[in-house]
Amino acid sequence: MNPEALLERFSEQHVLAFALVLARIAPLFLLAPLFSSRSFPARIRGVTAVALAIGISPVATRAIGDGKIPDDVWGLAALAGKEMLVGMAFAFGIAALFAALSAAGAMLDLSIGFMLGGVIDPLAGTQSSILQQLYTMVGVMIFIAIGGDGWVIAGLARTYEAVPLLAAPDLGSLTAAAQLAFSGIFTAAVQVCAPVLLALILTDAALGVVSKVVPQINVFAVGFPAKVAVGLLLIGVSLPFAAGWLSDELQRSVSTALQSLKVA
Q1: What distance in Å separates the CA atoms of residue 143 and residue 189, rounded to the nearest whole number?
Q2: CA pair distance 228, 203, nearest whole angstrom
Q3: Rounded to whole angstroms, how far apart are CA atoms 160 and 62?
Q4: Average pLDDT of the residues in 110-125
Q5: Which of these ranges, 51-60, 120-129, 208-217, has the smallest mean pLDDT?
Q6: Is residue 249 over pLDDT 50?
Q7: What angle do CA 117, 121, 122 make, to 5 degrees?
């Protein structure tokens, strides 16, 4: 093969590898926290995705060794679909962690009574309650402070060791991991808000006793400010401990996502 043909073949394979890497990265900007935030314009997210694809492409190319990426339409379409599936499986585990934080805030909003006031969440672009948005924003700030974005990108690069470009993932393992992540959202949410939720339950019980002992007191007029004060106080005390919890859970989520990626 002459040098011109060799150079053309080399360039073609690398362009195809770049396109497939971009297909695996794209779900990260649709599901994963911070990366999918609507606070960033779509153009910025697109440029960032392309930059990551350029950086990860050499890793993905080395992972396939001497394999050849098919250049026909159907073969490329099948590989692109597989890459998007792998990217979604990885990003879903990270998204489930922040869904737990959002659910924890929603539980406290319901317990305190803040569900009546809804605000627009700038990260998701949807309407959410006050504490739900607070927990989400604090989670994103902790995520940035502990370098979670670097962990996610490093974990995404390591997915090519588990499932190379030309390999098919084990669908059973992906399904089991998705079910585990989804079922763990409620448990993780309870872990985050348990101290505040317990204090609010005890406050409700105390107000119930007061209403029985002193029926002349308007328990609704007294109870709402009391629950707000207790809830906000306990939230302020417990939120700093969420940093360590989020750091541990983020590492566990990335590790679990990588373990779920197996070659069929």
Answers
A1: 17
A2: 10
A3: 9
A4: 62
A5: 120-129
A6: yes
A7: 145
